[in-house]
From TrEMBL:
<dbReference type="InterPro" id="IPR050523">
    <property type="entry name" value="AKR_Detox_Biosynth"/>
</dbReference>
<protein>
    <submittedName>
        <fullName>Aldo/keto reductase</fullName>
    </submittedName>
</protein>
<dbReference type="Pfam" id="PF00248">
    <property type="entry name" value="Aldo_ket_red"/>
</dbReference>
<dbReference type="InterPro" id="IPR020471">
    <property type="entry name" value="AKR"/>
</dbReference>
<feature type="domain" description="NADP-dependent oxidoreductase">
    <location>
        <begin position="15"/>
        <end position="294"/>
    </location>
</feature>
<dbReference type="GO" id="GO:0016491">
    <property type="term" value="F:oxidoreductase activity"/>
</dbReference>
<dbReference type="GO" id="GO:0005829">
    <property type="term" value="C:cytosol"/>
</dbReference>
<dbReference type="InterPro" id="IPR023210">
    <property type="entry name" value="NADP_OxRdtase_dom"/>
</dbReference>
<dbReference type="InterPro" id="IPR036812">
    <property type="entry name" value="NAD(P)_OxRdtase_dom_sf"/>
</dbReference>
Amino acid sequence: MEYYKLPQSDLTVSKIALGCMRISGKSVEEVEELVKTALDLGINFFDHADIYGGGKSEEVFGEVLKRHPEYRAKMILQTKCGIVPGKRYDFSKEHILQCVNDSLKRLNTDHVEILLLHRPDALCDPQEVAEAFDELYQAGKVKYFGVSNHTPLQIELLKKYSKYPLIINQLQLSIVHSVMIDSGLNMNMKEAFAQDKDGGVLDYCRLNDITIQPWSSIQASWAEGTFIDHPDYQKLNDVMQEIANKYHVTKPTIAIAWLLRHPAKMQPIVGTTSPIHLKEISEACKIQLTRQEWYDLYLASDKPLP
Ligand SMILES: NC(=O)c1ccc[n+]([C@@H]2O[C@H](COP(=O)([O-])OP(=O)(O)OC[C@H]3O[C@@H](n4cnc5c(N)ncnc54)[C@H](OP(=O)(O)O)[C@@H]3O)[C@@H](O)[C@H]2O)c1
């Protein structure tokens, strides 16, 4: 595994992180094996959210930490708050504080390294968020803060009031779902791909040392599921397979290598619950796709380039 220092922090993180959204249905033993595999591979970053499995993901992970308290010192834990299932969004101070307390309890830890605001809240009062951040930081419950699915201006608004830097923006990104890359490449063209749907979030994050954490990196969409071996993405699968053969790895590994090849130094959050898949995917760190391979993969997902 390769590591780097997360900009605006003193955290040294693995290039690939493990997302824990899908572990809620797994037994403690299964998650124990997954976490041990991750740590053995050198993955030290684990992504959570209060809502994953209605809290069950954090709970089962916390059970693993109860069995293996020695794991905690090897881990950087990140969780998120702000989505209230069925009701939508809540960035109120009261809600943020309550969420973190509940997450810490479920995770069996007294602090998380990073807290993210999960998805923008139209009623967000940035002053109130800043107060919540300050209370959490002062109490030693959260070391760093960030956001997920936020536009540059939403981040600027939060930054205006927060004493603490926002170090992460977690965003959906894959070869197939590459909205933040498409608009830049198709700049000033008439086609729909030229539309800037995110306020230039990719360049904004790079300019401001905010690390992008791609999520759902092998998913086409919620409805379609993964694009790996999906009949609607035959051309892409053919190109992935060809490149995978060259590097003696699997297709999902190439999909992650495609993200790592981007010079923005993104940290993909991979969501597998399978130790075997995780081992395969972690090989992506060793691969440096050529410029041509990167563009071949982009074009194979049926996106136009001027
Ligand atoms: N911030 C946000 O709004 C947001 C939204 C969604 C997710 N996330 C975060 O991002 C993480 C990743 O999201 P995701 O789970 O949708 O991402 P993903 O890594 O694209 O998808 C993982 C899913 O693909 C399956 N899969 C099928 N074949 C696979 C293969 N050969 N290798 C690996 N996986 C394969 C996995 O099954 P197996 O388990 O059987 O491998 C798993 O169900 C989540 O855990 C969460 O932490 C954040």
